[in-house]
Amino acid sequence: MFGIMKRLARxxxxxxxxxxxxxxxxxxRDHENVTIVTSPAPRSCLESIIMEKRFxxxxxxxxxxxxxxxxxxxxxxxxxxGIGAGRVMxxxxxxxxxxxxxxxxxxxxxxxxxxxxxxxxxxxNNILFFPGARHATATIVDPDFxxxxxxxxxxGGLADILASCSAITDWEIAEEKTGEKVSRRGIVAFKxxxxxxxxxxxxxxxxxxxxxxxxxxxxxxxxxxxGASFSGRPVEGSEHFLFYLAEETCQKRFVHGEIIxxxxxxxxxxxxxxxxxxxxxxxxxxxxxxxxxxxxxxxxGRDEMDRILANASKFTTMxxxxxxxxxxxxxxxxxxxxxxxxxxxxxx
Length: 348
Ligand SMILES: [Zn+2]
Known about the structure:
Number of strands: 8
Largest sheet: 6 strands, parallel
Strand order of the largest sheet: 1-8-5-4-2-3
Low-confidence stretches: none
CATH topology of the largest domain: Dehydroquinate synthase-like, alpha domain
CATH class of the largest domain: Mainly Alpha
Strand content: 5-15%
Radius of gyration: 20 Å
Bound molecules: zinc ion
Structural class: alpha/beta
Mean pLDDT: 96
CATH superfamily of the largest domain: Dehydroquinate synthase-like - alpha domain
């Protein structure tokens, strides 16, 4: 049953995807009546074709749902093409949901799961908000186009999959403490996938079309395993919850591929003996890919990190987020922060 569900999920996830170098320019050349939603860097790579075709453009779409609502009326075309990274993908999906336009997603970096799944993550009054879901009509993964952006953006996307290092243990803890139903096959499959990802470091970091193909395959496999597990739990646990709280505490936006590695290490540290892998091993992998994730690099002060951890348990309860190590760790439950953890983080 699990194997059949995984194959089905892979089929549905990959159905709109065209994986081909040169495919972005070809798609834009072949289509009329398209509103482009993008940001400056990907736009500059496609400047000549965009100018030639005179496509209407929405630059740097907001992430606040109410601000997006105000630009819905500007779209008069039958297609929306979202060309960019995570934020552009989410905004394009929302605009397509509201206008019922056909939707082409063109990731400029495989930096989050947003280009491959149908979930839409926005903000409402600065708080994470999920207004619905929208499938892409077409998704174009063009390795040559993606390689024009810094490769660390796409390699940071692997961290969104490696969030499973902490998320699967969170899921197991929830099963043990709350009786939440888990997928045993899903958990085993994710553990195998994590080991495989850690073994493939050399190919990922080459920064060639083959690396992009492998990152694509890794995303597809991970989301298909979520589909077969009937849950997003394997790729979203305490590490993502800490990231949501960090944005609210620090009042700023982080790059997903920088904050998720950091918070996955924090979650693994808290999971301690129960963690599926040691934080040091994952840290070595991130360092091998040249990812930047230290709290100092991200501009998170020690006092802010202290507040994030002290409020984590209260935050997850208030937001009714799933049970994780943040509800289970005695120190975090009481709101007391282990100074050794802070010392470790600020030595990263
Ligand atoms: Zn994520």
